[in-house]
Amino acid sequence: MNLFKKNYFSLDGNEDKRKSDRRKRRNEPSIPDGMWIKCNTCKSIIYKKEVTEYKLCPNCGAHFRMSPEERIKITCDEGSFIEFDSNIRPKNPMKYPGYDEVIEKAQEKSGISEAVVTGHGNIDGYEVVLAIMDSHFMMGSMGSVVGEKVTRAVEYATQYRLPLIIFTTSGGARMQEGIISLLQMAKVSSALARHDEAGLLYITVLTDPTTGGVTASFAMLGDIILSEPKALIGFAGQRVIQGTIHQKLPEGFQRAEFQLEHGFIDRIVPRESLRDELAVILKLHSS
Amino acid sequence: MNETMRKVAIARKIERPNTIEFIKAIFDDFLEFHGDRLYADDGAVVGGIARFEDIPVTVVGIQKGHDLDENVKCNFGQPEPEGYRKALRLMKQAEKFKRPVITFINTAGAYPGIEAEERGQGEAIARNLKEMSNLKTPIISIFTGEGGSGGALALAVADTVWMLENGMFSVLSPEGFASILWRDPSRVEEAAALMKMTAKDLMRDHVIDKIFSEPKEGIENNLKFTTEQIKNALRETLPKLRSLSIDGLLGRRYNRFRQYGEFIED
Question: Taking CB atoms and an 8 Å cutoff, what residues of chain B touch A179?
Answer without folding.
Answer: 169-171, 195-197, 202, 205, 207
